[in-house]
Specification:
With 320 residues, the protein is α/β, with parallel strands linked by helices. The protein is 41% helix and 16% strand. The radius of gyration is 19 Å and the shape is globular. The termini are far apart.
Length: 320
């Protein structure tokens, strides 16, 4: 059934970017400028995505034809471990309300943004798409992972039962403009960049990094992910999630050293082994999307240099 769904075009479509102020949503918003589309956005103060009635009424009025569901409560290890209820409840409600309403108003295409943390911690790596639900989740971010898995499975269920053209994309660890830069809510790249920068301008003798530094991570610039989202929106039709990664991994120790060099910090790095490492390794198998013709354009070193420049150029925004 799903193989018969035809390719769609984003040209002249009414497109809702859910989470347009976030890192992923903002990048998708900018990339859509090349299409003759009408862009829909909703500010958080005007629409509570956790409220089913408000979401459905808003969608009935605005009538989006394509949806990029990039809104989520996100954060690093500390936030995930401190606020399990928020990460599970908020993300389940956001996903379920929008996905269900998309079915009710007959949205042409919905692109759901998941996360690489959906995959089991002890499964063979790189993570292939079919390894979902084949093992135990990493405990430090299990609440967010469970919410994302629920959203993926709801998209799949609507495809099976209602023939809805809903797809799920699993990005690897991301970095780029509009991320959060504090230690509690920030992802590793943004949090470390901010930490090294503050240490530099305050002449601090050392910077502390959580864990041993040995875990391996894969990183992708958000602009590359945004390009992949547009490409898959037009060309991918399957109930199975599809991975989007760079294919390259680096230890946290080497990554911290790279950020340190880019920032120009001269002090020492101290690894706090009393803090959790998270998963030992997290690498996605992105063979499927690369066989379709997509590949990332920006190397990690170049991407981080651009990221630091954006950080320096946008201090007024970040201080708000």
């Amino acid at each position: 059934m799903e193989e018969k769904k035809s390719r769609i075009s984003l040209e002249n479509k009414k497109i809702w970017i859910v989470g347009h102020n976030g890192m992923v949503g903002n990048s998708i918003l900018k990339k859509l400028a090349k299409f003759k589309s009408k862009i829909l956005v909703a500010e958080k103060k005007d629409l509570d995505l956790r409220c089913q009635e408000k979401v459905l009424n808003w969608m009935k009025r605005k009538k989006p034809e394509v949806i990029f569901l990039a809104a989520a409560k996100v954060g690093g290890i500390a936030a995930n471990m401190s606020f399990p209820r928020d990460f599970l409840y908020d993300n389940v409600m956001i996903s379920f309300n929008i996905i269900n309403s998309a079915k009710l108003i007959k949205v042409e295409k919905l692109v759901y943004l998941g996360s690489s943390c959906i995959y089991p911690k002890n499964i063979k790596q790189p993570f292939a798409e079919d390894s979902l639900l084949k093992g135990e989740l990493e405990s430090s971010n299990q609440w967010y992972s469970l919410a994302k898995i629920a959203g993926i499975k709801l998209c799949e269920a609507f495809r099976i039962q209602d023939n809805c053209n809903f797809i799920s994309i699993m990005p690897t660890n991301l970095y780029g403009p509009m991320d959060k830069f504090d230690d509690i809510n920030g992802h590793v790249p943004a949090a470390l960049l901010n930490r090294f920068h503050l240490a530099k301008i305050n002449n601090l003798p050392n910077v502390t990094v959580w864990g041993s530094g040995t875990p391996l991570r894969e990183f992708l610039r958000v602009d590359d992910l945004a390009e992949a989202c547009l490409f898959l929106a037009e060309n991918y039709n399957s109930s199975q999630p599809i991975n989007v990664g760079s294919g390259h991994e680096i230890s946290i120790k080497n990554f911290a050293s790279l950020v340190k060099d880019i920032v120009g910090y001269k002090g020492k790095i101290i690894f706090d082994t009393s803090k959790p490492n998270g998963m030992k390794r997290k690498l996605l198998e992105s063979k499927k999307i690369k066989q379709m013709g997509w590949k990332p354009k920006i190397s990690l070193k170049k991407g981080l240099k651009l990221f630091y420049k954006w950080y320096l150029d946008n201090q007024k925004i970040l201080r708000k």
